[in-house]
Amino acid sequence: MRKKIVAGNWKMNTLPAEGVELAENIRADRNQVCSCVNFIVCPPFTHLGGVIEALRGSDIEVGAQNCAAEDKGAYTGEVSAAMLAALGCRYVILGHSERRQYYGETSATLNKKMAQAFANGLQPIYCVGENLEEREAGRHFEVVKTQIEEVIYNLTPAQFARTVIAYEPVWAIGTGKTATAEQAQEIHAYIRTILREKFGAAADETPILYGGSCKPSNAPELFAKEDVDGGLIGGAALKAADFLAIGKGFPQK
């Protein structure tokens, strides 16, 4: 059975003390959600030490929002995967649409970052997704396939087994357009098909998260879909009650 994951991407929000308080609030009420749901929080770099300490002893994992493509050296402003692992991070988000769009991250860059993550014991949450122009041109399958083939296809089977995929409908974020649960399932099922072509049955164990404005009100409909294994949560991850409520959206069995 695939992992059920609710991962919070805090992006560039909250100050360090606020981040620690948010983590403490999530921890305080975490027992209200089934232990079968895996929670991950990904705060800004400046918060990681405090958040990891606040969550120590709980089952809530901590991830970073990015890592450097190099292991060390004269790279001013960068944070290496080794540094993140030394703090106690377990996950790292790579290939987020904002990193691709605003900072020009390419598949070549992401291959290096994936290698750094695995070399230091981090599990990548690798993001794929198409923008509005690509969706309207009917190129969404093509774009997502390329993003997977150029990076994920380079992994060994052991590395692939430690990877989480997150699909972001970039066209539905801040545009006034909404992705339906059916559209989410369609692309998630396609992603799993592409993964299966390379990795066989192992693809059936890979969690694929939905990253398009998931919130408590639409989580149950999304998570009811066969190939939607959870969410990469943005705004709703900044409120402990909303973040935990999303975790209650999985079908009860």
TrEMBL record:
The keyword DNA damage does not apply. One of its GO terms (biological process) is glycolytic process. GO terms for cellular component: cytosol. The keyword DNA-binding does not apply. GO terms for molecular function: triose-phosphate isomerase activity. Pathway: Carbohydrate degradation; glycolysis; D-glyceraldehyde 3-phosphate from glycerone phosphate: step 1/1; Carbohydrate biosynthesis; gluconeogenesis. It is found in: Cytoplasm. Substrate binds at N9, W10, K11, G174, S213, G234, G235. Its EC number is 5.3.1.1. The active site is at H96 (electrophile), E168 (proton acceptor). Keywords: Cytoplasm, Gluconeogenesis, Glycolysis, Isomerase. It catalyses: D-glyceraldehyde 3-phosphate = dihydroxyacetone phosphate. Transmembrane segments: none annotated. It holds the Pfam family TIM. It comes from the Bacteria. Homodimer. Belongs to the triosephosphate isomerase family. Involved in the gluconeogenesis. Catalyzes stereospecifically the conversion of dihydroxyacetone phosphate (DHAP) to D-glyceraldehyde-3-phosphate (G3P). PANTHER family: TRIOSEPHOSPHATE ISOMERASE. This is Triosephosphate isomerase. It comes from Alistipes putredinis. The gene is tpiA.
